[in-house]
């Protein structure tokens, strides 16, 4: 029995894709494992952002990887360019 069923909420088969009102998308085990491992520590978010930028740049082969919140004032560093040109 899932945690949802324990709470009286019946799981559904989601054919709509990743939709927030339907709980987003189920996460693969590797993602859940990484999430659980990361949840054991606290880190400065600007340092995490910079590290994520480096991983994105390396994975894509571009000069500067950047993950940015939709907000113009999102956390972030950008390798090259300014962070105002969202």
Summarize the structure.
The protein is mainly α and 86 residues long. 35% of the residues lie in helices and 0% in strands.
Strand and helix layout:
Elements: H1 3-6, H2 29-38, H3 45-60
Low-confidence stretches: 74-79, 81-86
Kindly state the percentage of residues in helix: 25-40%
Overall structural class, as computed from helix and strand content, comes to mainly alpha
Largest sheet: none
Q: What form results from the Cα inertia axes?
A: elongated
Task: Kindly list the characteristics that best describe this protein.
86 residues; mainly alpha; 3 helices; 35% helix; elongated; disordered C terminus
Explain the overall architecture.
The protein is mainly alpha-helical and 86 residues long. It has a domain at 44-79. It contains 3 helices and no strands. The protein is elongated and about 45 Å long.
């Amino acid at each position: 029995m899932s945690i949802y069923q324990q709470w009286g909420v019946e799981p559904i088969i989601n054919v709509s894709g990743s939709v927030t009102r339907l709980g987003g998308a189920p996460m693969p085990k590797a993602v859940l494992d990484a999430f659980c491992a990361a949840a054991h520590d606290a880190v400065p978010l600007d340092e995490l952002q910079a590290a994520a930028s480096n991983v994105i740049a390396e994975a894509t082969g571009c000069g500067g990887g950047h993950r940015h919140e939709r907000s113009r004032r999102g956390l972030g560093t950008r390798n090259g360019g300014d962070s105002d040109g969202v």
